[in-house]
Write a structure and sequence with these properties.
Layout lengths: L2 E7 L8 E6 L4 E2 H6 L18 E6 L9 H18 L8 E4 L4 E2 L3 E5 L3
Parallel strand pairs: 1-7
Antiparallel strand pairs: 1-2, 3-6, 4-5, 4-7
């Protein structure tokens, strides 16, 4: 089973930011696999269009599914928003994905991004 390690993970039992690892089913949506185990990431629509569940993939980019057209459009809008708000260097070289649309096929390390 793949492992998703979440930096600054918070659960009902642990409200102190830390790094926690969770086993998920291969091919499972990242959000669903984590939520099932009590690791709640920020979220909104859970359909890939609002961008609330954005995460940065810190390690294991090769172990996630390619983005769908809807996810790509949402990520492009998020990057434009970050560039306007914080400057182009803020997200340059980072892999941003939506946890509600990303399937996990191997080990990854993520961190939730703030809006």
């Amino acid at each position: 089973m793949p492992t998703v390690s979440v930096k600054n993970a918070q659960t009902a039992e642990n409200t102190t930011p830390t790094e926690r690892s969770f086993e998920v089913n291969e091919g499972e949506l990242m959000f669903d696999g984590l939520d099932r185990q009590g690791c709640t990431l920020p979220h909104g629509c859970l359909a890939g269009s609002c961008g609330s569940c954005r995460v940065e993939i810190l390690e294991g980019v090769e172990n996630i599914s390619p983005p769908s057209a809807i996810e790509r459009n949402t990520i492009e809008a998020l990057i434009a928003e970050y560039n306007q708000k914080y400057g182009e260097d803020h997200v340059k070289g980072k892999t941003i994905r939506l946890s509600c649309r990303t399937k996990v096929n191997g080990n990854v390390v993520i961190e939730a991004l703030k809006s």
